[in-house]
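#data-curation
PF: Archiving a pair of folding outputs for the training set. Convention for this channel: one message per protein, sequence first, structure tokens after, nothing in between. First:
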Amino acid sequence: MTMTTGLTAAIIPARGGSKQVPRKNLQRVGGVPLVERAIRAAAASPGIDLVVVSTDDAEIAAVSADAGARVIRRPAEISGDTASSESAILHALDELRADGLECDVVAFLQATSPFIDVESLAAAVADVRSDRADSVFSAYETYGFLWRRGDEGGAIALNHDAARRPRRQDREPHHLETGAFYVFRADGFRESRHRFFGRTRIAEVPEWTAIEIDDEQQLRMARALAAVHESLGPIPVRAIVTDFDGVHTDDTAIIDADGGERVRVSREDGMGVALLRRAGVPMLILSTEVNAVVRARAEKLRVPVLHGIDDKESALRTWAQENAIPLTDIAYLGNDVNDLAAMRIVGWPVAVANAHPLVLEEARVVLSRRGGNGAVRELIERVLAS
């Protein structure tokens, strides 16, 4: 067997079990599973030759493979709650070696850190590959005053003199480890069986990226951060699917004495749909409601509509298959909880600005406009910009 040497491998341990957040590594932040976010960060980092996910879970393995990672199935004896990440990395290195792949440098990424800074990761890889360091870890600069509790409940200052409160510019900063990534020489890691050894350096990352998900509250915070930091820019998809009520309308209705229903729509949404149609980008309206107003609006827009649909996920899967469009290349625009199942299967789940909180959490993009007030136009312009 021919051995390929000198590789830099990103290794992402991702167990299926988690007590605080069930199926944590598959939870979505910004519409993307955590394990896939780590894979994308590694793949985008210059200097990394191979992205590997070590897992004991079939679903994580499938998501990882679809995202372009090499999957190594982790044995049960190193997959429990007490198993260390080091054991998973050593096992992965051995499996790669058995397949003829010898790694000189390892980038250990944690999927529970959803905002891995690619630029800092690349710099850390360069530091180790060029022999400027043996191990490098991500951290952010802090001027925080640290304390610990004493034996009798009193407070003891750790990194400062409590009797002297200097100005920020007069203080020495410290760096807090984020847990997002560690880069080290493979031979030194095999010898020490630890991520810190030899000449250790800090890779400084932006403080906002430092969140690590260990509980549901941190997951909600990460989703909110993703909506702020990742909701701008073009949306590169091949098709748009939207809900109707609360997306094309402002989610209100006027009922006349005979029970007839009138809704308010946006003319600029209509112009946006016309532009999308001219560009040849397919669009579908998918609605739970069985209402003549839905079909009338769809006919006015010259857009196909499926209404009276209780199972939006199945209907969306069927439409995508019939039109030969991968789900990853579809943007789904929703506003309420009946859109969640459909949003979870597409590459670009999008929410209107006034969507239900659960929809906002699932969205990869949160638009600046509300339903019925140009949200559809905003999405279309960002798709056409791509």
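PF: Second:
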Amino acid sequence: MEKSAFIQCGGYGRQGLKAALRSLVEGLGGSSRFFSRGDSVLIKPNMLSASAPDECITTHPEVVRAVVLMALEAGARPFIADSPGLDRFSDVARRTGMEAVARELNIPCVELDDPTPLPPAEGAVFKKVEVSRLALSADRIINIPKLKTHAQMMLTLGVKNLFGTVVSQRKAQWHYNVGLRRESFADLHLDIARGLAPCLTVLDGITGMEGRGPSNGRPRAFGLLAASTDPLDLDFRVCSLLGAPLADFPLYQAALARGLAHEGMDWSAHGLPEGFAIDPVELPELDALHLLPPFLDGLGKRFLTSRPVQDREKCVGCGKCVRICPAGAMRMEDDGRIRIDYGRCIRCYCCQEVCPADAIQFSKGLLLRTLELLRR
């Protein structure tokens, strides 16, 4: 039996969405494989920020609603939960539509809090990772990511979505801990995903985001819904479907190094109608940090890699970038100008990720400019 299933889905109409989801789940063994009577089920969408569904930053509430209904029909006890990095959970729940779904279906919608150690999976790189106790205490986890590009990790899909179980701004601390090493950050994501082991991942790719994701890219219709028993398998198949180079995907590189993927494997997306195709997605430009040995991280950070800069015309002065910065490298001046200490800046992209006005741009570093010249 395939680990991942895909279906074309053109919109968020309730009947069509219900039928598409049921078809996917049946293809993976049926709802009884994922939902049991009386089980506590964490429904984990992408609730990155207090954003409306049509901004395509967060999982669409209709996909969450369809999954919750399936769990309720099986007699399970679902609850919706996530841990936004900066915005208040109450604001996020209201703006994303998750609060309305929870109210309609009479289930809890709560913040993932109370960090507790995650028992490391076999072969884990990071042995001391804390996630929300609610995630660990749930009998089952249903992971519902949004299909988006990501300015630091290229794509954010099934595996990356589980990083949301790390409580609040502890996420930013992990950015600080791994520094410039994208593969190390991918290893962390792998450790969390393998430790939590969601029984089902449902990808909302009906609409998504390309360009400077995960929050400042452009919404795009992909017409795709997918489900998987293995978020890693799902992510690699989606990457291939989008026309994105697997070799540049930090998650794929980390999986190769750990023997969780092998070069030459077929990562086709099965189940889609003949002729279904997605034009190649517009990816964010990534500095090739993995070309530098670790002992040159300081040199690379200071002189070779891209650096964040403020677009004063777009900036609304909210200060979110300053509050999220794990390195304490940013401060807001009285005149509204953001001062950035590039010696402390770790190029984690957190500031760009949380900026609601797309006012954090990146000045290309020498390394990226050189690589672009070599590609011509």
